[in-house]
Specification:
It is a single chain. The chain is of the alpha/beta class. The protein has two domains: about 30-155 and about 280-340, Periplasmic binding protein-like II (D-Maltodextrin-Binding Protein, domain 2, 3-Layer(aba) Sandwich); about 160-275 and about 355-370, Periplasmic binding protein-like II (D-Maltodextrin-Binding Protein, domain 2, 3-Layer(aba) Sandwich). It is about 40% helix and about 10% strand. Strands 1, 2, 3, 4, 5, 6 and 12 form a seven-stranded mixed β-sheet that branches. The protein has a five-stranded mixed β-sheet with strand order 9-8-10-7-11. α4 (about 80-90) packs parallel to α5 (about 105-110). It is globular and about 65 Å long.
């Protein structure tokens, strides 16, 4: 009888040990960490987010606050000027930002200035850390160390070339090199973010592309008499008005089309140099170091990269902002993804990660000096 009781006791202890081990591996550890982080975030009570509409849009913020109403959100929304603001604040020893999200160009600036904390230690939710839920079975990063600039968008890259639909038949172009035809001299626009801004990612992609390279850029700026604008809206309006018929780096084309303007962009499959992932068309998210609300930042980061968060982002960008956007998560529907943003089934896309701007800085400055001063 005593032996039977002893055996039952041993079995019960073994089952208890196995159950506790299973519970820990099945959510106990991450759940405890998540609950602690959420509690600390509520105590902080606030979150400061800088970036573009991909993270500051009211509908995205609204969906987050439905789940976490105790966290007040302070946002600073904009384009390239946002990273310039962060740089200025930090030079004044003001550490005001928790999260920053925009294109890889601005995030690259923050990375090179060592403003960032690594992403992986902040990822908690199993559906976020599970790499099988992400394109290519891994998390992708846009920095040299693969730690700081998380690429969550997997939209195939277009060649950043737009055209006036009344003046141009796009079928006559099969390569980006075709715009160097002498007949386009004086008929190409170029949008620049202005003096002192970082090198645009599309320019870096051209520079490092094995089939494009520095020679293409030299000829573009030296031979084609570019009409330069430093005003985002003006550059696209001039394209629609016919001041030029082609435009490198023109932005907000989908919005312009909705307004009835005669503009369009070459898609990722239209020119042979398009179609990579992770470059200019991919939004990224970063964690700022010395952040005022680090726990609230972790909560938002995990929510944003979760299935629900990425579905919200994808819907807002495609249907509200009207910017073709496709998440790197592969476990969410793509019904609302605009056609140019969809990845083709079975196609293997080359992936662009870190593009070092240092070797290109003087080269790009010299390029800009070849063109007329930009119109504001």
């Amino acid at each position: 009888m005593s032996r039977t009781i002893l055996n039952l006791t041993i079995c019960a202890f073994a089952w208890s040990l196995a159950s506790s081990t299973f519970a820990a591996s099945d959510g106990g550890e991450w759940r405890a960490r998540w609950d602690q982080t959420v509690a600390a975030a509520k105590k902080e009570g606030q979150l400061s987010i800088y970036g573009g509409e991909e993270i500051t849009h009211p509908e995205i913020i609204g969906e987050f606050r439905k789940e976490f109403p105790d966290i007040k959100i302070v946002i600073v929304s904009g384009h390239s000027e946002v990273i310039q603001r962060i740089v200025a604040e930090r030079r004044a020893e003001k550490y005001l930002v928790d999260l920053f999200a925009y294109g890889p160009n601005a995030a690259r600036t923050a990375y090179l200035l060592r403003f960032l904390d690594p992403i992986l230690p902040a990822l908690i939710l199993p559906e976020v850390t599970d790499v099988s839920k992400w394109y290519g079975g891994k998390h992708h990063y846009g920095d040299a160390e693969g730690k700081y600039v998380f690429i969550y968008e997997g939209t195939p890259n277009s060649p950043s070339l737009a055209y006036n639909t009344k003046e141009i038949n796009p079928s006559q172009f099969t390569s980006i090199w075709d715009i160097l035809n002498p007949k386009w001299v004086g008929k190409i626009g170029y949008f620049t973010y202005g003096e002192g801004s970082a090198i645009p990612t599309p320019i870096l992609m051209f520079y490092y592309h094995p089939d494009v390279g520095p020679e293409f850029l030299k000829r573009l700026f030296r031979e084609m008499k570019l009409i330069v604008s430093a005003n985002r809206r003006q550059a696209t309006d001039w394209l629609a008005q016919g001041k030029y018929v082609l435009c490198v780096m023109c932005r907000d084309l989908e919005k312009a089309q909705k307004q009835g303007l005669a503009v369009a962009g070459f898609g990722p499959n239209d020119l042979k140099e398009g179609g990579s992932l992770g470059g200019g068309n991919s939004s990224v998210i970063t964690l700022l170091n010395r952040a005022p609300n680090p726990n609230a930042a972790k909560v938002f980061l995990n929510w944003y990269l979760s299935r629900r968060g990425q579905m919200t982002w994808q819907k807002v960008m495609n249907l509200r902002v009207q910017e073709p956007s496709n998440s790197m998560r592969i476990d969410i529907p793509t019904d609302d993804v605009l056609p140019d943003a969809r990845r083709m089934e079975g196609r293997k896309y080359p992936f662009v990660t870190f593009l070092d701007p240092k070797p290109v800085e003087k080269f790009y400055k010299d390029l800009l000096s070849m063109s007329e001063p930009p119109s504001k």
